[in-house]
Amino acid sequence: MPRAKAAMTAERDDHGHAKEWKPMTIGIERMHLEEDAGKNVHEGLPDTDKYSYIDLNRAGTPLGEIVTKPDFRTSWQAYDYVNHVRRVLQWVGASDADMEKGNLRCEANVSVRRIGETGFNNKVELKNLNSVRFMQKAIEFEIERQIAAHESGEGVSQETRLWDEQKQETRIMRSKEDAHDYRYFPEPDLQPLEVSVEFIDRVKAAMPELPDTMRDRFIATYGLNYSDASQLVGDRGLAEYFETAARISANPKLAANWVLGEFTRELNNSGKTAAESLTTAEDLAELIVTVEQGKINNNQAKEVFSEMFATGKPAAEVIAEKGMEQISDPAAIEKFVDEVIENNENQVTAYRNGNDKLFGFFVGQVMKASEGKANPQIVRDLLQTKLKL
C-alpha cells in the first residue's frame, strides 16, 4: 500500500498552539483524475432563502483527487496533513493551492468509535470547507456531535454535511448510501498510462529542494529551532528571502528573527508576499549589519525598517534622512555623561549611598541629552565608571 509521509504533526494545547512535533505517516488509498462539476450555491448571494444558484465556472476543469486511508486520529492531524500537501503543491509550482479560490479543496470524512473497537461506524462527509482552519473546526465539531449521538443511543446516519462558519456547526446536506453514491464514471477512451522508473527518477532530479528537506537543513546549517525553521519554509518566497538575508548578514538567527517578526508583520499588514516586497533581502541584511555595527539601536532599526518597507529605500538612506545614526564615539558620549552627572548632584549622592535603582535614571538622561543617538552600551560603561568616583 502506498504511504505518504506528512511533514510532522503536533500535540496542541486548548488554543491550538503546538507543544510537541512528531512524524506522521498516512496511507494513500488512490489518486484519480476527475472533471470538476458545477455546484449549487446556497449562501453568500441575494435571496438564498428563496433561490438556489448554480455556479458552472469550474465545470469541466481537470482535477486530481487524493484519497487517504482512515489513519487520522485527531482534527489537528488532518490540519497538519492538508497543510503539508498544500505547501508541497505550492513549492513545486503545481498549484496556488488557495482553498478560498477553489485551487485546493478538502472533503473530510469523520467517523468515531469507542476505545477498543476495531470496526468502523457510519461516516459523515464534510463539505463547504473554505480553509484548512475551517476544516479543523468542522472535524472537531463533528467528532463531538457524533460522540453525543452514539452515547444517547441515537446513532449516526451516513450523510453529507456542510460546515456553517457563522453558526460554528455542521448541518445536513444530503443522505448517502455507500461509495457508489459518488457516481464515478470511468472514461473508456483513456488507455492505461505506464510510467517508467527512469521517468520518475528524472522528475525527482528536476524537483527543487522540498520544504521538509529545507527545514531540516535550516536547523542543521543555521542553528534554527524547529518552530522557526518550520514557519520559514511555510512559504517558498519567505524561505528564500531568509536564506539570502542570512547569508549576506552572516547572522542567520538575527535574520530569522527579523523575517519572522517585523518583515512578516509588514507583509500581513500590506497583504503582500515576500516576492512583492519593495525591501529586498539584501536591504534587510544591510540593516542587520548596521545594527550589529552599533550605528543604530534596535528600536531605531524597527522604525527604519518600516520606512524601508513602505518606500523601498535602503537602510543607509533612511537613516541619513531621519538623522538617527548612532553615536559610538566614547569621547562624544562622555560629554553627555559629564553633563548629566554635573546637573544631578542629589541623584549622584543618593546613588553613591546605595540607591542602585537610580542607574536607569542616569541612562535615560544621557539618552535624552543625545536625542537617543548615544550607543546604550557605551553609555552604561561610562556611567558605571564615573558614578563610582
**Class computed from helices, strands and strand pairing:** alpha+beta
> How many distinct beta strands?
9
Shape: elongated
Distance between the termini: 79 Å
Using only C-alpha atoms, the radius of gyration works out to: 29 Å
Question: Largest sheet, order of strands side by side?
Answer: 6-7-8-9
What can you see in these coordinates?
- The protein has a four-stranded mixed β-sheet.
- The longest helix has 20 residues, at 132-151.
- By secondary structure, it is an alpha+beta fold.
- It has three domains: 3-182, no CATH class; 209-322, no CATH class; 330-387, Arc Repressor Mutant, subunit A (Orthogonal Bundle).
- 46% of the residues lie in helices and 16% in strands.
- It has 14 helices and nine strands.
- The protein is elongated.
- The chain has helices at 75-91, 132-151, 197-206, 211-222, 226-232, 236-249, 252-270, 281-292, 298-311, 315-322, 330-343, 345-352, 359-369, 376-387, and strands spanning 3-12, 18-35, 39-41, 53-55, 62-68, 108-110, 124-127, 159-164, 169-175.
- The mean pLDDT is 87.
